[in-house]
Amino acid sequence: MLDPLLITELALLGLCTGFLAGLLGIGGGMVLVPFLTYFLGQQQVAPGLAVKMAIATSMATIVFTSISSVRAHHQRGAVRWDIARRLAPGIVLGSMAASLGVFALLKGSVLAFVFAMFVSFSAWQMLRNKKPAPSRQLPGTAGQLAAGGTIGFLSGLVGAGGGFVSVPFMVWCNVPIHNAVATSAALGFPIALANAAGYVLSGQSVTGLPPASLGYVWLPALGVIALCSVFTAPWGARAAHQLPVARLKQVFATLLMALAAYMFWKGFTAG
């Protein structure tokens, strides 16, 4: 049975990540992975395994937060479903390749470094605030299929909903930031579902897992965080449509930089 203090901490984490999922279209994974890595360490899980379980559990929660978040964005007409439909097939293929194959082979320390590097890059792109070429548009169907594969694969390695790649990609292609965030929230569902299934399957033979684990997924944390996050995701979505574009980019980038620094540190300490 979980300690009441841990349940409270997981509930607060769920409330915060649900809000951020709606606000930034990141599915909450960028926030969940560092905190879950810490909580699993407190449960005496080996450092390298803790990173892997944090990534897998984070992704599983996004199945629930993405549904709540995208409903709120869709009601405001902000989701570009045409983009989502073209990116989704590649996302599913890339996600399964990561969660069923590469994820199980890499050490937790390597995954922590990969997480930190890609998050840092995404934050830097946002802070640069470089204006994309006015003539640049989204690539054709084949190009978006490839982009979706890349987003799904990277998401599978780091346990995030893909917003850290898809939002900068869409903004780079002149999709307005509010539409990019909303569409990223919609993409979080296929990313999370495909990856979560892969983590469950690839973790079946792993030893040293804590009680109540399903593959790499830590079920107690999944239940508490998912239950709490669905309530606050719509609030974040409303805030996303009220904040100015420049401020939204700054919030996104500052958050990612802080979490990247933490995961760089975990990469040095995890096995």
Pick out the low-confidence regions.
none
- Gross morphology: globular
What's the total number of strands?
2
Radius of gyration: 17 Å
Strand fraction = under 5%
The count of helical stretches stands at 10
Strand order across the biggest sheet?
A: 1-2
Helical/strand content category? mainly alpha
Mean pLDDT value: 83
Give the count of structural domains. 1
Q: Summarize the helix and strand pattern as letters.
A: HHHHHHHHEEHH
N→C terminal distance: 27 Å
Biggest sheet architecture: 2 strands, antiparallel
Q: Assign a percent range to the helix content.
A: over 70%
How would you summarize this macromolecular structure in one to three sentences?
By secondary structure, the chain is mainly α. It has one domain. Helices cover 78% and strands 1% of the residues.
Commentary on this structure:
With 271 residues, the protein is mainly alpha-helical. The chain has one domain (4-269). The chain is built from 10 helices and 2 strands; from the N terminus they run H-H-H-H-H-H-H-H-E-E-H-H. Strands 1-2 form a two-stranded antiparallel sheet.
Features:
271 residues; two-stranded antiparallel ribbon; mainly alpha; 2 strands; 78% helix; 10 helices
